[in-house]
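Q: Sequence in, structure out?
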Amino acid sequence: MRHKFVPRRMFKTGRGASGTAFPR
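A: Exactly. Output:
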């Protein structure tokens, strides 16, 4: 539910990096 704070680019990257957690 932090995808709202992160752009679509980081959304895809966060998925492969942490899966559930997204980079800030």
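The two ends are 13 Å apart (CA to CA).
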